[in-house]
Amino acid sequence: MRRLIAAVAGAAAIALPAGCATGEPGLPPSVAPIEHGTQLHLPIAGYVPSAEEDEVIGRATLVLTEGCARRFGVHYTVGSVEQPGILDGADRRYGVIDVEEAARSGYARAGKERRGAGPWRPSGREYEVVTGRTPTGGPATARAADGAPVPAGGCADEAWRRLGGGGELTRLVDEVLRESWTQTRADSRARAAETAWTECMREAGHDFHHRWDAAESVGTSPPAEQRTMAKLDATCARRVNYVGIWHAVDSAYQERAIARLGDRLPRASAERRDLIARAAGIVGTG
Q: Which tens digit of pLDDT belongs to each residue from 198-211?
């Protein structure tokens, strides 16, 4: 394996060329390197509900679903399962960042494991009542004691309807995240940083086209090989300021999208706050 040129720890800010393609947003004349995931902040993050707020909504949905299922003589067997937030994994949006952490944990996100109630294994009737479909995909035929049919979409959908919606914010945030990611991948500044990363990896004997190819190449390899690749991956990213550049480009596109949405995000945020208040009331009386 050819010698990898040593990474420059604590490197100075790296100058960037101005965007040359039509429509590319401007960036600062230099972009400081990012050493740790905690330094990442996306512009859209200001509109993302907290984990605590998401938990309240999840608990309220569970209370309402359980109440609906009881009308059909069904005990809903799903417990309180921790759901990933919209920005979970944002610290790895551009790949592993910290060389030392990569050397210790590879591509695993140490300390970020999620715990839940395990897989859902419902009876046929429970599945039908909760989802509104039979296990074979047909429409629900179950009836409550008073003869009422299963609500459209099952008790899970009814629970969300009773909460009163408020999903516009999630949809808009997801839209901004997807759009900015697509634009970043096509941006000349981001592509130049990726080319520099691939050249660094090639010096170490690896022929990758995209940064995520490195992790995929060792996905089924022994942990030691994964750690070695993750360390090399992060070292090359640090050397060329890959994360700093991709974050700056991504942020610029997000800021443009947020401005284009005008008052839609603030209005959706207000609706989400109303939803959280309703959910808190349900949990308090449930």
A: 999 999 999 999 99
Phi and psi torsions of 155, nearest 5°? -65, -30
pLDDT, tens digit (0-9, with 9 covering 90-100), for 7-33: 333 333 455 555 444 489 999 888 988
Q: How far is C-alpha 34 from the chain's CA centre?
A: 20
For 83, counting Cβ atoms within 10 Å of its Cβ (0-12 exposed, 13-18 middle, 19+ buried), the class is middle
| Number of DSSP helices (H) and strands (E) in the chain, helices first | 10, 2
CA atoms within 13 A on the CB side of 267: 5
Determine the 3-state secondary structure of 183 from DSSP: helix
- 82 and 51 in contact (C-beta within 8 Å)? no
pTM: 0.74
Locate 89 and state its tokens: 């994994």
User: What are the distances in angstroms from CA 235 to CA 109, 178, 195?
Assistant: 17, 27, 15
Structure tokens at 68: 């609906």
DSSP string for residues in 1-58:
-PPPPPP-TTPPPEE-PPP-STTPPP--SEE----SGGG---GGGGGSPPHHHHHHHH
Neighbours of 51 (CB within 10 A): 13
